[in-house]
């Protein structure tokens, strides 16, 4: 077998593994988001903590992470955790910025609502890093 015959199979496995990790991240993030919303008494009017919004943005970010891994692994799969957690850290600017926003900016916004978004930004990165780490 040549390298070109082996690579598509490996890429296919990575894609499947990434899609499974994405599904896990979506389910976990929705569950954690709903639990945090209930525990912190976040108003249902705060749209970023609704199941649909959580699922949609987790899906998008996780799929972007899978694509990033497919690109980065060509040079060094070890760089992926650094990139994933770096992107997750930068994404925290959104929830942290909400701490400065007023109630007029976001309906249902409270300090607890803004803080509840933080784990939802970190969890998908953790799921993808663990999923791709097991592969090596």
Automatic annotation (TrEMBL):
The membrane spanning regions, by residue number, are 14-40, 52-72, 79-99, 111-132
Keyword terms, alphabetized: Membrane, Transmembrane, Transmembrane helix
Cited InterPro entries: DUF6069 (IPR045713)
Protein name (Swiss-Prot/TrEMBL): Uncharacterized protein
């Amino acid at each position: 077998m040549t390298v070109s015959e082996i690579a598509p199979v490996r890429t296919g496995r990575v894609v499947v593994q990434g899609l499974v990790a994405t599904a896990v991240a979506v389910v976990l993030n929705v569950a954690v988001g709903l639990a945090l919303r209930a525990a912190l008494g976040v108003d249902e009017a705060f749209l970023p903590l609704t199941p649909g919004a959580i699922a949609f943005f987790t899906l998008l970010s996780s799929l972007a992470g899978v694509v990033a891994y497919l690109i980065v692994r060509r040079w060094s799969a070890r760089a992926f955790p650094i990139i994933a957690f770096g992107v997750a850290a930068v994404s925290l600017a959104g929830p942290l910025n909400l701490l400065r926003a007023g109630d007029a900016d976001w309906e249902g916004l409270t300090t607890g609502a803004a803080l509840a978004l933080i784990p939802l930004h970190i969890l998908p990165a953790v799921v993808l890093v663990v999923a791709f780490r097991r592969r090596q």
